[in-house]
Amino acid sequence: MATDSISRIKEDLTTSAIDSPIALKTLALWLGWAAISLLMLGKLYHKANIDAFLLHDRTMMTSIIISVFAFAVLVSFHHAVVLTKEWLRASSLKQAISKHGLAGMEPLRRQKRNVERFIFSIQAILKRDGHLDLESLVLVEFSSQHRRSQFVSLIGNLLITLGLIGTVLGMTMILGGLNGAISAVGVDQALLMTSLADAMSGMGIAFYTTLMGAVLGGILLRVFSWITDTSVHALQDFMLRTCLVYGSAELNPGTARELQVVDANLARVQKRVDLVATACEASGREVGKLVEKMTELQSISQTLAANESMYQVAVQHAKYWRGVRQSRLFGQFFRPTKSSESEAH
Asked: Containing domain of residue 209, as a range?
């Protein structure tokens, strides 16, 4: 398993060096648009004096819009990183398919990425000689990636809606302030000024919430969603092209597909034969070592037999051991258990 993971990492690094402009395109576009977004938000922060408005926003609608926007940006960044990993893995799979074909590849043991599940599904269909519909399969396998992009786009639409809700709340505050101001004309000057201040505050809420909802949700998040969604579509096209170009003979049932399957099976059998041959060679070496040990033991026994005194001492020790084992005093220590008796029977 360790050697397999090391070989996978080496393969991913090799293919990422070859196809790095394609694999890193999604993350590069995302980071580029994030930099542009920061510049836009910095200009908006200084020109529109948003920090002062947030301190006096009684509805908290602008703070809610900014918080939801920050959450959506984190989700979109995670999606961009996941798609970059998908592209790197797709590049390595392309190299393997171009060399060995779909049937000649080793069966994928892990299906962590969508591209891996896509190839694994194709291998399973080819193994069962079933009908393969690539367009339907690629839509099913990459549907989770589309849902993530749609989620970010949904949050963008939600921010626009929150901006409109803030506009309605601001207009309501404007009408309430004007109504109080009209009723306080010529009666209470302090109430008149307070009502006018409420009306101006409502106007600020109406404009600021509309501005933040339109900029954050209608512009920034929609572009983030477009980047990831376009990357998913490009990844689908990349995998379809790889399968159609390098595995077209295996995708259509016929003689060529059967020959590819036979060649792949023969290659797997050859690998197993090589493993058996290696195991037999190792077993032969171990048997040779065992023969050498037996030869050494035989020479030692012959030496012992040649030396009469040592031989007699060994015989006396053996007799003594048999006598001790058969004695009543030590018989209970060497009495066979029930399990050993049953095994003996």
From this structure: 2-251
